[in-house]
Design a protein that fits this description.
The chain is of the alpha+beta class. The protein has two domains: 85 residues; 130 residues, Glucose Permease (Domain IIA) (Distorted Sandwich). Helices cover 37% and strands 22% of the residues. The protein has two helices and 14 strands; from the N terminus they run αββββββββββββββα. Strands 1-4-12-8-7-6-10 form a seven-stranded antiparallel sheet, with no helix packed on it. A three-stranded antiparallel sheet has the order 5-11-9, with no helix packed on it. A two-stranded antiparallel sheet has the order 2-3. Strand 13 and strand 14 form a beta hairpin. The N and C termini lie far apart (125 Å). About 2% of the residues have low confidence.
Amino acid sequence: MSKCRVRAELQRTLLQANQATLQQQENRLQAQKAQLSLKQKDLNAKLASAQGVVDQLNADKAAAQRQVRALQAQRRRELLAALAAAAGHGGGPSISGVLLVCPIDQPHAYADDFGAPREGPPPHPHAGNDIDAPMGTPIRAPFDGLAVDTSGGLGGQAVTVYGAFGYVYNAHLSAFGTLGQVTTGTVIGYVGDSGNAQGGITHDHFEWHPNVIPPNPWKSPYGYTVISGAIDPFPYLNSVC
């Protein structure tokens, strides 16, 4: 056999071997593709199942939110009815000449909770009186002065009115009214539940800080007369609310 024929035969043998190897690789690739296709189908099935769970959770969440809104509406109606029945303070000590108008429009209700324990954080005695009123009830400047945005911390949105004899602090507002120089009765904000009052009964946390502490300030049922420069506003509110 000539050298050329031998060389050609070797090349043919090598070519056939390479083709067999390529065929084996192709077979393995097809098998891998088939496995991947099965895994993809399984993954798609799991994703569809997970999406079903997510859709159900979203439906449950929407139903829960509708229920919460219904309960909140019922609570507001009950609060309005209670405020209408218990409007005002129902008697008690009265000190006039400091607050010239009630800081909260009707309907509203309040009690002498000055010094009542509050959780915070940190735990602390209540430094004012909470005046419960429907969301959006106007809050008014009780005297001429300067209304300033003093928001932050537990009080959420808050307005302080600085007057000739001291200042009042209003917290948990839902919105602001007129700020800057104001006259008696100017709407400086609106009742809400911002700060740590969120989700609770809407109210104005009202504090009275006189420039000079009176010699015998009113003592609340909780035994407090002065807390961080604030005195019990209850008798002052009684004179105008």
